[in-house]
Write a structure and sequence with these properties.
Shape of chain B: globular
Number of helices of chain A: 4
Structural class of chain B: alpha/beta
Number of helices of chain B: 19
CATH topology of the largest domain in chain B: Purple Acid Phosphatase, chain A, domain 2
CATH superfamily of the largest domain in chain B: Metallo-dependent phosphatases
Strand content of chain B: 15-25%
CATH superfamily of chain A: SoxY domain
Number of strands of chain B: 24
Number of domains of chain B: 3
Number of domains of chain A: 1
Distance between the termini of chain B: 60 Å
Helix content of chain B: 25-40%
Order of helices and strands of chain A: HHHHEEEEEEEE
Largest interface: A-B, 21 and 51 residues
Shape of chain A: globular
Number of strands of chain A: 8
CATH architecture of the largest domain in chain B: 4-Layer Sandwich
Structural class of chain A: alpha+beta
Strand order of the largest sheet of chain A: 1-8-7-4-5
CATH class of the largest domain in chain B: Alpha Beta
Distance between the termini of chain A: 35 Å
Oligomer: heterodimer
Chain lengths: ~150, ~575
Amino acid sequence: MKVHRRLMLKGMLALGAIAAWPRLLLAARPDSAFSANDADKAIADLFGQIPLDSDQVKMKIPDIAENGAVVPVTVSTDLDNVESISIVVVNNPTPLAAVFLLTPRSIPSVAVRIKMGQTSQVRALVSAGGNLYSTSKDVKVTIGGCGG
Amino acid sequence: MRRRDFLWLLSCASSAGLLPGCMRSIVRGDPYEASPFGNVRLLHFTDCHAQLLPIYFREPNVNIGIAGASGRPPHLVGRHFLEYIGAAAGSSDAHAFTYLDFAAAAEQFGKVGGFAHLKTLIDRQRDEAGEGNSLLLDGGDTWQGSATALWTRGRDMVYACNLLGVDIMTGHWEFTYRDDEVLQNIERFDGEFIAQNVRVTEDALFDGVAAYDEDSGHAFKPYTIREVGGRRVAVIGQAFPYTPIANPRRFIPDWTFGIRDDDMQELVDRVRENEKVDAVIVLSHNGMDVDVKMAGRVSGVDAILGGHTHDGVPHPLIIENAGGKTLVTNAGSNGKFLAVLDLDIGNGKVNDYRYRLLPVFANLLPADSAMQAYIDDVRRPYLDKLQEPLAVAESLLYRRGNFNGTFDQVICDALREVRGADISLSPGFRWGTSVLPGDTITMERVMDQTAMTYPETYVRDMSGAEIKTILESVADNLFHTDPYLQQGGDMVRVGGLNFSCDPTASMNYRIADMTLDDGRTLDAGKKYKVAGWATTGSESPGEPVWEVLAEYLRAKKTIRVDKLNTPVLKNVAGNAGLADYSGALE
């Protein structure tokens, strides 16, 4: 699926709106997951289940970060009834970077920029229909220099 | 008499006159002669690094391939390479494609490249193909690498490429000028500048920064369709994916890069479906190992014409993928080679191909007079500076190779001596021409090694641990087993520092046994005075490195390199990308 930029921007605006109104979603901010120092603990805190690797979770992120302070990542899925999309940077001091809560009627595609302190595996998790699915990729954060 | 016969006679006459009995007796017949083939001719050169005049360029004796790249082109050097291409030792091909017996062979075969000579060869190839049946593609790294390119901010090369007749180009070092200069140069360029993998950042788009396509975010036209020989050929641009990491981001803050092979696949599919093309070609600056990996993942591409890693590889690699097969080539550097890909296209597809990588021997190709006049004009205002003699080389000076070349060693020695440092660091660039023993090192040759937009030097205190981190990071960019995580440069050059390197190990475990030149062990916690140049973060405060180097050379008067700070190499003895190594092997 090709998400056009404008369409994606609209999707992002819609997301913002969703995040702004349902107070009950906001009330459940998972503080302990966001402050956990370990990726598995953060995921266990958040979902209480172990994710299944799935090629239905699509993550777009560079192989090498141009700037570790703002690494663009896009996560999308073809799964139905998506409840949330989360992003975890395994080697960050606090690995849980973002949780997006979605309604079944929103387009399950989110884009965000995350901070990465060092080379790390990045995991995208999609909770849908009561199950947890994930994909992951190693992203390199490196000093610059040289090149042919 | 046909034009090409005439040219050939002319070149024989000139070579016979200049080098009596030399070139003519060694190169049998016309090395550029070939029978007609196919209906579409694609000419490709890459990484000329702004060398307008003929030069010497020594190929590496260390070009180690790791994991899947071990023992396959381009990671073959010396006799391994000769065996692969079936060339005899001492032949002109042996000289063009390998470092073997370089200085003596360079005396014998003369200089290579030069835009006036390249122009003659290109015109002949295009004449042979016939009007409208050929395209000239430039893989980039064209606007940087010489003094005049730097001083004219790449403009001398843009106009030279217009004279040469370049139809399509992509880029890498082009992006080391400021973004507005890049756009102005593209305006001046008569051909098309294409890149599917360069996008305007989201922030910049919101701020109203111009993009080729605001919806897709493409900063430049991603591809172009040309009618060639009555066939429709799509050419997709792939700029160097790691430009803002390998080079300063500050010059091009609004553009973001990346390999983006998923976008590439989408684009290939879209072009194949909507544009009724007969062939899809990618003009790439990925580097050869990255191109090989991409060719295995993206289907529907007939050929990837590659550059960046400066590998002169005379046969395409044939890579299988889900959709069939893709040719992957790499066409060397410094104007030394012209690639000629002849395609036989019919029934909407490529049926057959012939690939030749022609060495551009300046003595065999008379200079095109219009191009020569242009080059002379460009150089005239700078001649005094360019021709200043600084020292005489007693050793062969060169850069290319995974570790310190002799010219790098001179730069590192100069940085230490002039700036008073314990250790010096110099980037592992793959550009930089060679100087033969006995030849004068002019300011122009110094600029060949150093001419770029962030030449400032620094001296700073670094701990042993920090120095190790730098070495480990660069080694990982060179020897990572996944080509997508390599940046295509060589190892950082060092002065005053010795170490061991295991290219087969993983990040943080490759570098060990670090000692200073006086034998003391490097202490992780202790500070050392380190001099260097070409910082990609913020601008360094010191004078440009060419001034440091020129000062050193003027004082020394003669330059002899007896010791190279090349590492002890572990676990790569027997690697086909390693021969005549100057250091120890364990």
